[in-house]
Amino acid sequence: LRLSHEQIEVVERLLLRRHAAGVAAVLQQTWPAVSERLKDRWPAFVEAALQHAHRHGVAEVTDLARFASLWCIWGAGFDDKPGFEWAREILADERRPAPLKVHQLMHRTREELARQRGSAISAASARAASAASAVAVGRLPFRVFELTRLSLTSMNAARRKNMRSISGMISRRS
Question: Where are the alpha helices (DSSP H) in 93-156?
């Protein structure tokens, strides 16, 4: 099976949308106040968070869920807001692989929340969100497509790595 760049982009968008539905369902249990406040906009909020994370190279569902949790803590697009230079710095560093970026964002979030003792969300909540995101991955619906073989020769290195990751997730969950 050989996919064109356009077809790969469609597959990536569909996988991201599918992940967003599963992540939204799981994170709704972790962040009931946020999902309640957003009501019908909750699924779109989570999907936007996952798309934002994906633009920064985040592909693993666990990391996508953690990134969406960060949006629940700090707000949508927090890394573009004043006071979050630390997040922009982490996400902009091309030397760091995406999973490390998310890990460092979570770690820094714990530190920031610990400093803000008066915050409504505690550092323990950030740890709980990270743990809930990791545990919840087993409950996410992964089977989207049956892809037997992908011809990755015409793609750039980053896209090949991403598609290998995606095809690996699908084959492991099949």
Answer: 98-115, 123-136
